[in-house]
TrEMBL record:
The gene is priA. CDD domains: DEXHc_priA (cd17929), SF2_C_priA (cd18804). Its EC number is 5.6.2.4. It catalyses: Couples ATP hydrolysis with the unwinding of duplex DNA by translocating in the 3'-5' direction; ATP + H2O = ADP + phosphate + H(+). PANTHER family: PRIMOSOMAL PROTEIN N. Binds 2 zinc ions per subunit. One of its GO terms (molecular function) is zinc ion binding. This is Replication restart protein PriA. It is an enzyme of class 5 (isomerase). Zn(2+) 2 binds at residues 519, 522, 537, 540. Residues 282-448 form the Helicase ATP-binding domain.
Length: 805
């Protein structure tokens, strides 16, 4: 038997399949989609089996060393998808496959085989049964070193039958979760002991009686609580060999201590009904189709998602739901858990390696039917997908900014076409690309342009801060916002104050000479952090103490400028003494669960004002919020990115959408220095369609997406001459090779010209149709392979960049 393997050596020349022979003792063990260890040159490396066959063109083959899996970790569909990724995200095969798996499967781990249920012991063949007679768990290593080749084949069979399960124990102490449990040695020992007990040993008596009623293992802490005893009582019973104590691993479930009240489907409104009908049709007829639900904030998109998923489950299928950085929207997770209970797995970046692995296992073993997760959850190893939903589809976080540089939307459509099922993209502010495709009929457009139950969209007022300054108002609150905030405080209603994080961090400047503290390794100013009284670089992590004097002119007048959330909080305390404020930003939400705790406090009415950055802009649905104030709407408008206007409009619309979602009507105040800019002005009437038309005109004029595709080739190196030289050569080559319909810009310095002591130059390609582009880009990678493998030169190619820097 021969296997074709992709090896874990991510460089140009190895990005293909290698043939290996399967030694006799491993025959019958290997399938495609499994991980193996193979010899590669002088080393042993990990690899994925892509195909199996009976012959090879090569005469002499090496043998595989070891099989790491008992059942495939990648399905045939995912193997195909990996192939698609290598072309569409321009990455190596090994990188594509690795990105589909949880980190635990890449890390060092110990493998064990577990008997899933003691009753299955009799069903195992005698050779295997021997091993599990006195143990529930056996080390894989032990089975291998037994030298019994037939044994592994039999174990594998047991795994396929569900009698045994293979567990990878993640080798990091922090995440591994075990608890101490106690259980009775036998019922006899309990009753014997009960008779021997002194009458005064009341506590021991209680424990024994407890176990006579409940013989199952129980954690030491729970037992102490149940029987009102102490650890020493339990210990004395253990010493008398009445109870035994042991460590067991628990499945980590981050939501284990949360109770979710089951919710029932709401009767749909007429709009929701119109939207869900074609989705049901696509589901039932197994037709692959991509829908765009453009629904204003509070139009009830989530309820449509929930009922579409219920339909998919009803016909025996599975569902994937993507939400942006899920840890940031606990309310969203809650709505899915409340409807589908333990059928839901949650995957997001806030989980530990072990927790992620546990969630992945639930999916892999088919124990859950719904996954709610951030970007990478799009690779959930389901085998029978019925629907894929991407909420807030316009969010930039759906694009991965490192290899493989995929967009989750593209992957979703690719997977859904394999399973012949629908994809739903939902947003109150769809991306220009998506809405343009929907208008052209590539996606099916479904609109919900009013809120549920005749709730009106909030009234939006735009305040020109230049005018405020002219009338002598130097505070960070305009007169209008000040009045409305006081009004809310008096009425006991809640307000949201939004401050854009990007472009609004605090920097340190000398008042005498204008010197701004810069990172010594990057061309970017340092950010002041009040809690640690230090300056930090957000790109390389460089940190230094807040200087006492200016390093340029020695003046003592060195201060931090800009207005972070902390400063706003101080200002609120000054202007509205007594107002209760909850501040949400990176500093206050660093601890695990902090985000959720703060939101719960706000929901319970423990604060009047929720002050925060991006993380409060979307997903919140609180009935008592009647005012949203945006402190500086234009801080994002001037970023060097062609999507700056689009992002501004999206963000302002989203944050406005938090106001007045239930009985109480809402108001929004947007403060800005450029009220005339269309991305701000059009928020006033919630006019997405007008914004779309206007912005499309701008993009057409400047040859940007969706009229043109763009690809950016970025080169970096510690020496500037080298960077310029390479970028020049690449640019010239691209210009020569592409048709004259394409526009090639560069070489130019990137918008941050130096990061971590490496200079950065780039070339941008704008094109409509270049069938040879991927091939040309691969040639470039191949051409610089030797230098990039050495690590000094980097050439990175992004075929659809979302963050330009
Ligand atoms: N059919 C319905 N009947 C009654 N209430 C509903 C119905 N559908 C949704 N709602 C309620 O309307 C409110 C807004 O709905 P939802 O949060 O689903 O809107 P959304 O479009 O997802 O909003 P956003 O994009 O702003 O997050 C919620 O409180 C929800 O419970
Ligand atoms: Zn730096
Ligand atoms: Zn100075």
């Amino acid at each position: 038997m021969i296997v074709q393997v992709v090896v874990d050596v991510p460089t140009g020349g190895t990005d293909r399949l290698f043939d290996y022979k399967v030694p006799t003792h491993l025959q019958g063990m290997v399938e495609s989609g499994m991980r193996v260890i193979v010899p590669f040159g002088p080393r042993k490396v990990q690899g994925f089996v892509i195909h199996t066959s009976n012959e090879s063109d090569l005469a002499k083959l090496k043998e595989i060393d070891e099989v790491l899996d008992v059942t495939p970790v990648l399905t045939n569909e995912l193997l195909e998808l990996g192939d698609w990724l290598t072309t569409n995200a321009l990455c190596f095969k090994i990188t594509a496959y690795q990105s589909m798996l949880p980190a635990a499967l890449k890390a060092k781990y110990k493998k064990e085989v577990m008997l899933t249920n003691h009753e299955y012991l009799q069903e195992l063949p005698i050779e295997v049964r021997e091993w599990f007679k006195h143990r529930k768990v056996v080390d894989w290593e032990e089975l291998i070193t037994s030298g019994d080749k037939q044994l592994l084949v039999l174990v594998k069979k047991g795994v396929t039958q569900g009698l045994l399960e293979v567990i990878h124990k993640v080798n990091d102490k922090v995440t591994q979760k075990t608890i101490r449990v106690v259980e009775p040695v036998s019922v006899n020992s309990l009753t014997n002991q009960l008779h021997q007990l002194d009458n005064r040993a009341l506590k021991q008596k209680r424990v024994i009686e407890y176990f006579l009623d409940n013989p199952e293992p129980i954690s030491v802490s729970a037992l102490m609580e149940q029987t009102d005893t102490t650890r020493s009582t339990i210990k004395s019973l253990v010493d008398k060999l009445v109870l035994t104590e042991k460590e067991v691993e628990v499945m980590r479930d981050p939501y284990v201590n949360r109770r979710f009240k089951k919710t029932e489907p709401l009767p749909l409104t007429a709009h929701q009904q119109d939207v869900i009908t074609p989705i049901f049709h696509s589901l039932i007829e197994h037709q692959h189709q991509t829908f765009l639900i453009h629904g204003v904030t509070g139009s009830g998109k989530t309820e449509v998602y929930l009922q579409s998923i219920a339909k998919a489950l009803e016909i025996g299928k599975e569902a994937i739901v993507l939400v942006p950085e899920i840890s940031l929207t606990p309310q969203m997770v809650q709505r899915f858990k409340e409807r589908f209970g333990s059928l839901v797995a949650v995957l997001h970046s806030g989980l530990s390696t072990g927790e992620k692995y546990d969630e992945w296992r639930k999916i892999h073993h088919g124990r859950v039917k719904v996954v709610v997760g951030a970007r990478s959850a799009i690779f959930a190893p389901f085998r029978n997908i019925g629907i894929i939903i991407i909420d807030e589809e316009h969010e930039a976080t759906y694009k991965q900014e490192e290899n493989p540089r995929y967009h989750a939307r593209d992957v979703a459509i690719q997977r859904a076409s394999y399973y012949q099922c629908p994809v739903i993209l939902g947003s109150a502010t769809p991306s220009l690309e998506t809405y343009a495709r929907a208008k052209k009929g590539v996606y099916q457009l479904l609109e919900m342009l009013t809120r549920v139950n005749q709730v009106t969209l909030p009234a939006v007022e735009i305040i020109d801060m230049r005018e405020e300054l002219k009338t002598g108002n130097r505070s960070m609150f305009s007169k209008a916002l000040h009045e409305k905030l006081s009004d809310r405080l008096a009425r006991g209603e809640q307000s949201v104050l939004f401050l854009n994080r990007r472009g609004y961090s605090t920097f340190v400047m000398c008042r005498d000479c204008g010197y701004v503290a810069q990172c010594p390794h990057c061309d970017i100013s340092l950010t002041y952090h009040q809690t640690s009284r230090s300056l930090k670089c957000h790109y390389c992590g460089h940190q230094e103490r807040m200087p006492q004097t200016c390093s340029s002119c020695n003046s003592e007048h060195i201060r931090f400028f800009g207005s972070g959330t902390q400063k706003v909080e101080e200002e609120v305390a000054k202007v509205f003494p007594g107002a209760r404020v909850i501040r949400m930003d990176v500093d206050t939400t660093r601890k695990k669960g902090a985000h959720e705790r703060l939101l719960t406090q706000f929901a319970e009415g423990k604060a009047d004002i929720l002050l925060g950055t991006q993380m409060i802009a979307k997903g919140l649905d609180f009935p008592n919020i009647t005012l949203v104030g945006v402190l500086a709407a234009d801080s994002m408008l001037h970023l060097p990115d062609f999507r700056a206007s689009e992002r501004t409009f999206q963000l302002l619309t989203q944050v406005s959408g938090r106001a007045g979602r239930h009985q109480l009507p809402g108001e929004v105040v947007i403060q800005t220095y450029t009220p005339e800019h269309y991305s701000i002005d059009l928020v006033k009437n919630h006019d997405f369609h007008a914004f779309f038309e206007k912005e499309m005109g701008v993009r057409r004029l400047q040859s940007y997406p969706p009229y043109y595709y763009i690809t950016v080739i970025q080169v970096s190196h510690p020496e500037i001459t080298k960077v310029i030289d390479v970028t020049e050569k690449i640019t010239a080559y691209v210009r020569r090779s592409l048709s004259d319909q394409s526009v090639v810009l560069g070489p130019v310095a990137s918008s941050i010209p130096r990061i971590k002591d490496r200079y950065r130059y780039q070339c941008m390609i704008k094109y409509k149709n270049e069938p040879r582009l991927v091939e040309i880009l691969k040639e470039i990678i191949e051409n610089y392979k030797k230098e990039t493998n050495q690590g000094t030169l980097q050439v990175s190619i992004d075929m659809n960049p979302y963050v330009l820097m």
